[in-house]
Design a protein that fits this description.
Mean pLDDT: 84
Largest sheet: 3 strands, antiparallel
CATH architecture of the largest domain: Orthogonal Bundle
Shape: globular
CATH topology of the largest domain: Triger factor/SurA peptide-binding fold
Number of strands: 6
Number of helices: 11
Strand order of the largest sheet: 1-2-3
Structural class: mainly alpha
Low-confidence stretches: 1-20, 321-329
Length: 329
């Protein structure tokens, strides 16, 4: 039986004939078009660091950033691609541009100027720190000029111009944000936030018994500000934070009751301690500048301050614009 089966299989194979070979279509390899990526544009030549350093260069246009054969890619294409791939990152860049324009407008309104010598001093200090870091980590392996080229894709002179421009922009942000806050009645507070109400009630009893609030905040608080003992920058009534209304009602040295806030659907409990109350001062920027310089050196501008400024003043501009629009029918 087995022999008969093998014979039948052999006969079937013989009748089927040889199997056709697969057809292979061969084509000449196609060479990709050459890719040319443009080097970063040369930084703007500036002899004076006025508020316009915060504004886009009106003469720049939609510059070419790359070319693949006959296809030209421009800055607008880069942003459109970033918006589709990383929308949060793209919108963050837009927020930064909006903030810069608002800062420039306030700088002009209050006659806030960044001294050229201050810009160059801080930029020189930044370069010195970076040189020391390169020397420590890459001693003898690469020159500073080569390091700047490899990391930033810029010649040293261009990198220095960019560093000065970036320093001027950062100074304007610090000057404007801190100066506007200085004109308002403000408080300086520490706070603790926790999802457990009982934890905060026990913390309040410990503070009343003499415990250090900052130490408790570092141990118990459930947000990033715990690293600074729950310390917030000086703020006024426009500060967009869950503790603002309670904090502004406290006297110096006073501890709040535990109170509840619901943020994004999550219930949290807060405890606030008032360190200082500061009255608003109607002073010219030139008079306040040494004080603001000292504060910025001791405590640089924080993201929470920048966000608060942008949210407040962008909202004010939008409200003002809405007032001018015709009422819907």
């Amino acid at each position: 039986m087995r022999r008969a089966l093998l014979v039948a299989m052999a006969a079937a194979a013989a009748c089927s004939g040889p199997k056709p070979r697969p057809v292979v279509v061969r084509s000449r390899p196609v060479s990709p078009p050459p890719v040319v990526v443009q080097a970063p544009q040369e930084p703007r030549q500036l002899s004076d660091y006025g508020p316009e350093v915060l504004l886009p260069d009106a003469n720049q246009g939609d510059a070419e950033v790359a070319r693949i054969g006959d296809t030209v890619l421009r800055q607008s294409h880069a942003f459109a691609r970033l918006l589709s791939a990383e929308p949060k990152l793209a919108l963050s860049a837009v927020d930064l541009l909006v903030s810069d324009v608002l800062v420039a407008e306030h700088a002009r309104e209050f006659d806030i100027r960044v001294p050229n010598e201050r810009v160059r001093q801080l930029a020189d200090e930044e370069e010195k720190r970076l040189r020391e870091q390169v020397q420590q980590e890459l001693a003898g392996q690469v020159t500073f000029e080569d390091y700047v080229w490899r990391i930033f894709g810029m010649r040293l002179d261009d990198w220095r111009k960019t560093a000065e421009l970036r320093t001027a922009q950062r100074l304007y942000q610090g000057y404007v944000v801190r100066y506007l806050v200085l004109r308002e009645d403000r408080v300086i507070v520490r706070y603790i936030v926790n999802k457990d109400e009982q934890v905060l009630k026990e913390a309040a009893e410990k503070v009343r018994a003499g415990a250090d609030f900052a130490t408790l905040a570092l141990r118990l608080s459930e947000d990033a500000m715990r690293r600074d003992g729950g310390l917030l920058p000086a703020f006024g009534v426009s500060f967009p934070h869950p503790v603002t209304d309670v904090a502004l009602a406290l006297k110096k040295g006073e501890l709040s009751q535990v109170f509840e806030r619901t943020i994004g659907g999550d219930r949290r409990y807060y405890l606030v301690y008032c360190l200082e109350r500061l009255p608003g001062r109607d002073v010219r920027f030139a008079e306040a500048q040494p004080e603001i310089d000292h504060e910025l050196e001791k405590r640089p501008l924080t993201p929470i301050e920048t966000n608060a400024y942008t949210l407040r003043w962008r909202g004010a501009v939008e409200a003002k614009t809405d007032d001018k629009l015709p009422s819907p029918r």
